[in-house]
Amino acid sequence: MTAPTRTRIGASELEIAPLALGGNVFGWTADRDESFAVLDGFVAGGGDFIDTADGYSHWVPGHGGGESEAIIGEWLRARGSRGSRADVTIATKVSTHPDHLGLAADTVRAAVDESLERLGLDEIDLYYAHFDDADTPLEETVAVFSELVDAGKIRAIGVSNYTAERVEEWFRIARAGGHHLPVALQPHYSLVERGFETNGLRAVAEREELAVFPYYSLARGFLAGKYRDAADASAAGASPRAPEAVKYLAGSGRAVLAELDRVAEAHGVELATVSLAWLRRQPTVAAPIASARTVGQLPALLAALALDLAPEELVALSAVSAPAAAAG
C-alpha cells in the first residue's frame, strides 16, 4: 500500500483523489441518512470526487428525477463542505431528467439551473452530456455547453455514453467554433467489460488527453465477489442489479473471480479493492466510479486509493479477462 496520489481532470484545473463516488444510489437504495453517512465516510477516508446526474433516480416509483442531487446538496449545506473549493469536487450530468430530456440548448440551460439549485452551488465543477441526442444537432449542444462555461455555471465539460466517432465530431465542432473543449469521458469499462479498449474511445481519450471515469467499475457488484452463483441474484438482500451481475458468470467470469481471489488474498484486501486498483492503472483512466449503498461497503473502495498492484498481477488480470478469453 502507498499513499494515494492526486490526478488532474484532463486540461482543467480540477484535481481529485483517483476514486469517484457514484451518487446513483442516493435516494434509491440508500435513503437520506445512509447517503449522508456514506458521503461522510468517503470524505473522511480520503475521497473528494462525487459523481451524479440530474436523472437519478427517476426510475423509482414515486420519483421524478433529481433525488440524488438534492441529497448531495442537502449534505453539502449540512456539512459546510463548500467552504473551500478543494474540499469536494462535484460532477453531474444532463439529458435524462423527465422534465429535461435530450440536449437541445434550451433544455440544457433549464436543466443546469435546476441542478445548481438542487446542489446548492453557484458553479458545477464537471458537467456531462449524459447520453448522445440524435434529435439535436451536435453543433447546438457543443455551443450551449461552452456557453455555460463562459457564464460561470460550469467549470469543465464531459461527455458520457458517446461513440468514438461522435466524441471526435464534438472536438471538430468545438475547435471550428472556438468553443471550450471537453476534458472528461465517462464510458462503460471494467475487468469484464473491455470494449473501451478497442471501440475507439481509448484512442480518442489518448489523442485529446481526456480524463476517463469508467462507470459500472465493479460490474454491478460482480467484481466485488458478491455473485458466484446464479442463485445469488435472488437471495435475500440482493441488489436490484443482481440479475444483470450474474450474467458475467458466463464466459471468463468465473476465471476472473478466481484470479481476483488470488491477488486479493496476496494483498489481504477485498476483491472490489483489486478490481478498482486494476482499473485505476489502465491507460487514460483518471478514476473509476464506484457506488456504496452502506458505510460498510466503503473500506473496500477506499483501499483502492492506496493499493499498487505488481506488474505481473496487472498482466494476469488483463489476460484472464481479455475478450478473447471470454469468447473461449
How would you explain this protein's 3D organization?
The chain is of the alpha/beta class and 328 residues long. It has twelve helices and twelve strands. The chain has a single domain, classed as NADP-dependent oxidoreductase domain (TIM Barrel), CATH 3.20.20. Helix content is 38%, strand content 12%. The strands form three sheets. It has an eight-stranded parallel β-sheet with strand order 11-10-9-8-5-4-3-12, with helices on one face. A two-stranded antiparallel ribbon has the order 1-2. α5 links the parallel β9 and β10.
Class per helix and strand makeup:
alpha/beta
Unreliably modeled segments: none
Mean pLDDT: 93
Helix count from the secondary structure assignment? 12
Global geometry: globular
> Class, according to the CATH hierarchy?
Alpha Beta
Largest sheet, order of strands side by side?
11-10-9-8-5-4-3-12
Helical content class: 25-40%
Which value, in Å, is the CA radius of gyration? 19 Å
Helix/strand order = EEEHEHEEEHEHEHEHEHHHEHHH
CATH topology: TIM Barrel
Our measurement of the CA-to-CA distance between the termini, rounded to an integer number of angstroms, reads 35 Å
Number of strands: 12
Strand content: 5-15%
Characterize the main sheet. Answer: 8 strands, parallel
Which homologous superfamily in CATH is the superfamily? Answer: NADP-dependent oxidoreductase domain
Number of domains: 1
CATH architecture: Alpha-Beta Barrel
